[in-house]
Write a structure and sequence with these properties.
It is a single chain. The protein is of the alpha/beta class. The chain folds into two domains: 5-155, 3-Layer(aba) Sandwich (Rossmann fold), CATH 3.40.50.2300; 163-257, Orthogonal Bundle (Arc Repressor Mutant, subunit A), CATH 1.10.10. The protein contains nine helices and twelve strands. It has helices at residues 4-12, 43-55, 66-74, 94-103, 121-129, 142-156, 189-200, 208-216, 225-239, and strands at 35-39, 59-63, 82-86, 112-116, 134-137, 163-166, 169-172, 177-180, 183-185, 206-207, 247-250, 254-257. The strands form three sheets. The protein has a five-stranded parallel β-sheet with strand order 2-1-3-4-5, with helices on both faces. It has a four-stranded antiparallel β-sheet with strand order 6-7-8-9, covered by helices on one side. Strands 10-12-11 form a three-stranded antiparallel β-sheet. The structure holds calcium ion. Calcium ion (CA) is lined by residues 41-42, 86, 88-89.
Length: 261
């Protein structure tokens, strides 16, 4: 449960100004929520962050330590769209984690936002040297935090109204149309979202439960083998253009989009 002071903060907040990327029932082509990794050891603040960001339409991946964040990233769950790192963590610090993320080719472009209780200029500079993109000083207002997350995603992420092109496959994320080598292709909404997620993170292996969360949503109960059914359909669509090999099975994990082949 949230501690009282945080509940009050949350209750006082109005969320009308926040980003709503996930709009249930808006259409069958629901926009995919951006995912945010939160690394914060204090449970009350972690829960406040989870609550605030979920309400703003983000998918939240919580971790209490740098070590558990690294194991989440290494377990085939894919790279999130943004990371919020607390500076003071037990074990590896937020700054050390930020440096580690920058060194790893998989996460070197991951936008990171540092939470710090310190306001000193020297510390801020140090956090920018570690490759942190922005910082927020505690105590923070949930509204400001969401605004900063939104701004950072806009600055660094793939714009929502964009077009993804890879290997001759062109996904128009506005109209949800797909063409392959210039030919219009008929595709179901689930296959479209599945392909979009895989193409946004080329060469990244996703396990089935992550695919279920990010393509179907956590509120929907479907069995993991449903993923295989839709991957099969997606491969059939791509096979007509001899591109089915791009959706690779990763043994013991799940699937990935092979960008380099
Ligand atoms: Ca802390």
């Amino acid at each position: 449960m949230l501690a009282d002071p945080f509940v009050k903060v949350v209750m006082k907040m109005s969320y009308c100004g926040t980003l709503m990327r996930l709009e249930p029932n808006h259409s069958q082509h629901t926009a995919m929520p951006a995912s945010v990794l939160i690394v914060e050891d204090e449970p009350e603040i972690r829960e406040l962050l989870e609550f605030t960001l979920s309400r703003a339409g983000y998918e939240v991946i919580p971790a209490a330590t740098a070590e558990s964040a690294v194991s989440i990233l290494q377990n085939g769950q894919g790279v999130p769209d943004l990371a919020i790192l607390d500076w003071m963590l037990p074990g590896q610090s937020g700054v050390e984690l930020a440096r580690r993320l920058r060194r790893d080719p998989d996460t070197q472009h991951l936008p990171t936002l540092m939470l710090t209780a310190r306001g000193e200029e020297a510390d801020k500079l140090k956090s920018f040297e570690s490759g942190v993109d922005d910082y927020v000083t505690k105590p923070f207002s949930p509204r400001e935090l969401v605004a900063r997350v939104k701004a950072l995603l806009r600055r660094t992420g793939i714009p929502e109204d964009s077009i993804l092109v890879m290997q001759g496959i062109r996904l128009d994320l506005n109209s949800h149309r797909i063409t392959i080598d210039g030919d219009a292709v008929h595709i179901g909404p689930t296959e479209f979202r599945l392909l979009e997620l895989l193409m946004r993170h080329p060469d990244r292996a996703f396990d089935r439960s992550t695919l279920l969360d990010r393509v179907w949503g956590r509120s929907v109960y479907v069995e993991e083998r449903t993923v295989d059914v839709h991957v099969l359909r997606l491969r059939k669509i791509l096979a007509r253009h001899k591109l089915d090999h791009l959706i690779q099975t990763v043994r013991g994990i799940g699937y990935r989009f092979a960008a380099g082949t």
